[in-house]
């Protein structure tokens, strides 16, 4: 259990239970579908394996999450408990507050194309064609300049090395622009229309691309904030 703070206050006790910023981010990752250790780690750059393991143990000890064996029985997944699910409102309230008061467009040093593709993977929709669809992304800035999203009926994966599947669509553009699109600062359709995003492949697939990805859950809040600011 967490150390009980001297101050008898729900906010103080709640902050003690959650520990630090990594705890909320771990809960966020599980909320968006990352249930295994490696997937959670991949979505949290800067967090070491040892610290993730410690934070997971803490969150399990305070009843925020639980471990569930996988079908093979050799590994396990992390699932949120009722207490963990209850943090959904808190996490999104924090995100909406940040969007309203402190969420400028991404700086060049915040461009992380590998992480962006990982986020986009979680937002792939059922609008994708049946079977395997391979999308190659070429970025004109950022450390990672090429990556692939491979989607099948069973799973969606991100590859930073050539998966050697036929490419259905090739998409070229600025990584910073893709971050702006993902978080709602810009519209993908507009970026394609202006030529800032180049889509190569069958016309039917190219037209459908904007429907293949659900954007960040905060994108509508970003758009609303921009509209309110004029």
Rg to the nearest angstrom? 19 Å
- Terminal CA distance reads 48 Å
Kindly report the name of the CATH homologous superfamily of the largest domain.
SCP2 sterol-binding domain
- Average pLDDT over all residues: 92
CATH class descriptor name of the largest domain: Alpha Beta
- Reading the helices and strands in chain order gives HHHHEEHHHEEEEHHEHH
Beta-strand portion reads: 15-25%
Q: Please report the number of helical segments.
A: 11
Strand count: 7
Structural class: alpha+beta
**What would the CATH topology of the largest domain be?**
Nonspecific Lipid-transfer Protein, Chain A
> How many domain units?
2
Q: How does the overall form come out from the CA principal axes?
A: globular
Main sheet: strands, sense, barrel = 5 strands, mixed
Strand order of the largest sheet: 5-4-3-6-7
Q: Report the uncertain regions.
A: none
| Proper CATH architecture of the largest domain | 2-Layer Sandwich
Give the fraction of residues assigned to helices: 40-55%
Keywords: DNA-binding, Transcription, Transcription regulation
Organism: Mycolicibacter hiberniae
InterPro entries: HTH_HxlR, SCP2_sterol-bd_dom_sf, WH-like_DNA-bd_sf, WH_DNA-bd_sf
Protein name: Transcriptional regulator
């Amino acid at each position: 259990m967490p150390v009980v703070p001297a101050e008898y206050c729900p906010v103080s006790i709640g902050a003690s239970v959650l520990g630090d910023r990594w705890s909320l981010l771990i809960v966020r990752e599980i909320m968006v579908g990352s249930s295994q250790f490696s997937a959670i780690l991949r979505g949290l750059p800067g967090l070491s394996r040892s610290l993730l393991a410690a934070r997971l143990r803490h969150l399990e000890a305070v009843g925020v999450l639980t471990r569930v064996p996988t079908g093979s029985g050799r590994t396990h997944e992390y699932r949120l408990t009722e207490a963990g699910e209850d943090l959904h409102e808190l996490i999104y309230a924090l995100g909406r507050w940040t969007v309203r008061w402190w969420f400028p467009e991404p700086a060049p040093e915040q461009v992380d194309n590998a992480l962006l593709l990982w986020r986009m993977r979680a937002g792939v929709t059922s609008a994708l064609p049946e079977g395997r669809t391979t999308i190659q992304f070429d970025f004109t800035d950022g450390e990672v300049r090429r990556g692939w999203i491979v989607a099948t009926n069973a799973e969606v994966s991100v590859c930073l090395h050539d998966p050697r599947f036929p490419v259905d669509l090739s998409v070229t553009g600025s990584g910073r622009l893709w971050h702006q699109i993902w978080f709602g600062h810009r519209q993908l359709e507009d970026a394609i229309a202006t030529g800032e995003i180049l889509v190569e492949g069958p016309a039917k697939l190219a037209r459908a691309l904007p429907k293949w990805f659900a954007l960040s859950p905060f994108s509508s809040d970003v758009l609303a904030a921009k509209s309110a600011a004029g």
